[in-house]
Amino acid sequence: MIDYTKYKLKPVEEIREIFNQIDGSVFILICKKCYKEFSTNTELEKENLYNSLTEENKHKIVECIDIDFLCNNYHTKKAITDLSTKIIDFIKDSGAIGVISCGLGIQLVASLFEDKKVLALADSVPESGNSTSPQGYHGIALGKEKCGTCGQCYLNRTGGICPVVNCSKSLLNGPCGGAKNGKCEVNPDIPCAWEEIYFRLNKQNRPLLNEIQVRNFNIFPFKNKKEISEINLYSRGKDFLRGIHPLDKKNLTENSKIKTFPEPETVIIFLSQHAGAPAIPVVKVGDKVKIGQKIGEISGFISSPIHSSISGTITAIEEKTHPTLGRKMPAIIIKNDNKNEFDDSIKAVSLDNIPGEKVIEVLREKGIVGMGGAMFPTYVKLFSKKPIDTLIINGCECEPYLNGDNRLMIEYGDKIFKGIEIVKKTIGVQSVIIGIEENKPEAIESMKKQILGNDYIKISILKTKYPQGAEKILIKSILNRQIPEGGLPLDVGVVVLNISTLYAIYRAIYEGMPVIDRVITISGDYVKNPGNYLIKIGTPIKSIIDFTCGSDFIKSDDKNKKIFMGGPMMGILQMDIDTGLIKGTTGLTIMESYPVESSEERECIKCGRCVDVCPVDLFPLQYYYYGKKQDWQKTAEYKVKNCIECAACQYICSAKIDILKYIKKAKKYAYNKT
After folding, report:
1. Beta-strand pair 294-297/26-31
2. Which of 82, 161, 187, 592 could, after both became Cys, cross-link 168 (CB 3.0–4.6 A)?
């Protein structure tokens, strides 16, 4: 495999010369490299550095620290802040900080220690191997530092400020003499790089420059690259840090009004459609049931009852492949009698003088769970003894293809608003915020009409970015509150509910209806009848495919079809279509593989893109690296339990690695879960 490492140690003679000029101690920071095969987590740079030095200079080194992606200002600042006191104590006034990295890492370290001498012990390697190349794609830096990859780094002499990229004239050879009031004569919007270099060197009690090789670097189109970089940095940092912008494909169904899906002949209703303990069946084979009748009872504090979505006869209670768990789980099979008889328990609830505890009890009995996909029992979320000050309504629906929540806000905005009022009264919050991504203008206008005259509720229009709708991310974007590690929204005084959940709450109270159906999006590039459908819980996936794609779409010998329960990012690939919809089903994305051979999974080269896009500040490549070795304890040290499984890392991975597979295994084994 080609090694695209972005730096190499300076020549032996130059390293020795650099160390000879230092009287005190040297603290070494080494970037653990990127863009090379990720087959080891240690590098030979420390050994190579020692081999380059004389015995006298070796003793000047007090410590060497390896850091992942030294150029990444967010992670690096945190790491170096922890080390700063130690570094300063070691090097004192006469010492220096030695940095082995590309120019980005060297510049960042220099900016964090402006009054200390920073030694550039490596040269950046141009991507093409040609120092005149205009390409300088290095690292995953999120800061202002840039690297021209000129192949001969002079940051030692310029205080860590690169004149090649920071000077409008790209002058390395010295000041041009044209600064006007500290600004460049060519571009008065930016400061003169050479004045900045002069002032920083003054802080370090160092002279400006000794003689250097005269070269002309005015060949890099950094103005254009800077503009692109700034646009990218702005969009990446808006609302929450990082994230991605996948093709959303929402145009396929965003204007499709909600339609009622045909009645299923048979339903497959799983006893586990919620987080926690599965429900216990309260019916037996041969029993007649009606719409809304309870057929599964709660079996623990975190559990939820299950109701029949049709009227008919129970023909079996047997194991079927669960659509999200991927293993055999108990399900109740009901044959439709097409009589549409409703159970007597379906009665509206009057909210007059009813305490919040009673409302929560009703929501528990009606089987309300989080219908954005997590399926956490709503009554548990609302039954909190912790103080709650804000209710956030999640209307982001950031997953590509899906439009169910969008259409609910557009068509049933009044019912969503009534659902909000129910929850507000139940938990007694004073502030309600509806978060909607800006790519849903019709939904935004619909909800604005509903909240007129209600000062306690407002709409937060969020940037269209994935995974904006994740609970932790949404709270950070709207309230700038950080959920503690291992914590819940309740720990920061917030309850978050999905739009579909609020619609279910409205129906439970105003119609007395348990969760027997829901709105889902059925979409995909090869779906003949895409749309947003109100579908009965338990409807077989096969019957949905037959209706929307045609009965000949799925063939037993055809492996090119992909069916995701949910969207393509976080959705679960269905290997068995003899299963049924559950309460947490947000959609079915039915796709056909393109008629080209897929790229094979390749080795990780530590390009850092997965780190760059992770919205919860993790190092996904480490889960792959240690997952392959089955060193689950190491994945725990890298905080794999904090992963929200948004799959942004997998989406961006140029090696096509199934990172999520390793993450799920790590979560299972790293914390001794079975």
Report:
1. unpaired
2. 187
